[in-house]
């Protein structure tokens, strides 16, 4: 544990979802990132079985509107964490997929791989609805094929979040593939 991480432990009396006998211990660690941001790492551990899970929650997020993007070129990049705020537009131009702003909880907080799987699912459902439109189906199959490759790390693409309100976040596996561009909008701010 580095000096920059502060750990707090709290006992909770809720039961383990896996073994149902054990008690879940919750450990919260606040971690200071090199760029001044703070992350909260929450770890859940069962005292009876092997169940453990953790989550990373950004505590300080960029409040300025901006365009954040991540170049995904290998399998490791797929583990980069993504947090999309409700006003953020998430898109992958190379795969012709996009999530409009809105409270779509399944696109809220996940990693790149999770995003691709959700797109794959949504595109598959759309393809199945194209009854008999073979021309369109061929087009969609091409996209599905590329998404499958992307999930294996065999397709290079850019994940872009355009956030007019701020608050969206990408935690890259490889900092050099991350970029942030400030957006100037005429929106009123409380500050
Ligand atoms: Zn357990």
Walk me through this protein's architecture.
- The chain has 191 residues and is of the alpha+beta class.
- The protein folds into two domains: 5-58, N-terminal domain of TfIIb (Single Sheet); 66-182, Sandwich (Jelly Rolls), CATH 2.60.120.1040.
- It is built from two helices and twelve strands.
- Helix 1 (112-129) packs antiparallel against helix 2.
- It is globular, with a radius of gyration of 19 Å.
- The mean pLDDT is 83.
- Bound molecules: zinc ion.
Short description:
This protein is an alpha+beta fold. Helices cover 19% and strands 38% of the residues. The protein has helices at 112-129, 134-151; strands at residues 5-15, 23-32, 38-46, 52-58, 66-72, 81-83, 88-92, 97-99, 109-111, 157-163, 169-171, 178-182.
Multimeric status of the protein: single chain
- Number of helix segments? 2
- Reading the helices and strands in chain order gives EEEEEEEEEHHEEE
**How would you name the CATH homologous superfamily of the largest domain?**
ZPR1, A/B domain
Descriptive key words:
single chain, 191 residues, alpha+beta, N-terminal domain of TfIIb, Jelly Rolls, 2 domains, five-stranded antiparallel β-sheet, four-stranded antiparallel β-sheet, binds zinc ion
List the helices and strands and how they pair.
Elements: E1 5-15, E2 23-32, E3 38-46, E4 52-58, E5 66-72, E6 81-83, E7 88-92, E8 97-99, E9 109-111, H1 112-129, H2 134-151, E10 157-163, E11 169-171, E12 178-182
Antiparallel strand pairs: 1-2, 2-3, 3-4, 5-10, 5-12, 6-9, 6-11, 7-8, 7-10
Helix pairs in contact: 1-2
The structure holds zinc ion.
Zinc ion binds at residues 16, 18-19, 22, 46, 48-49, 51.
């Amino acid at each position: 544990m580095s000096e920059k991480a502060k750990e707090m432990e709290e006992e909770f009396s809720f039961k383990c979802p896996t073994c149902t006998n054990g008690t879940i211990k919750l450990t919260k660690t606040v971690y200071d990132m090199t760029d001044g941001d703070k992350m909260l790492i929450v770890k859940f551990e069962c005292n009876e079985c092997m169940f453990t899970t953790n989550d990373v929650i950004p505590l300080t997020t960029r409040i300025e509107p901006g365009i954040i993007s991540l170049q995904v070129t290998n399998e490791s990049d797929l583990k980069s964490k993504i947090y999309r705020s409700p006003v953020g537009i998430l898109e992958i131009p190379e795969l012709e997929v996009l999530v409009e702003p809105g409270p779509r909880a399944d696109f809220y907080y996940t990693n790149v791989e999770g995003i691709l799987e959700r797109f794959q699912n949504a595109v598959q459902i759309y393809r199945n609805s194209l009854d008999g439109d073979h021309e369109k189906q061929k087009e969609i199959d091409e996209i599905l094929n590329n998404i499958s490759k992307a999930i294996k790390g065999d397709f290079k693409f850019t994940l872009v979040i355009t956030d007019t309100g701020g608050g969206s976040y990408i935690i890259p596996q490889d900092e050099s593939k991350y970029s942030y561009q400030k957006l100037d909008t005429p929106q009123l701010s409380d500050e």
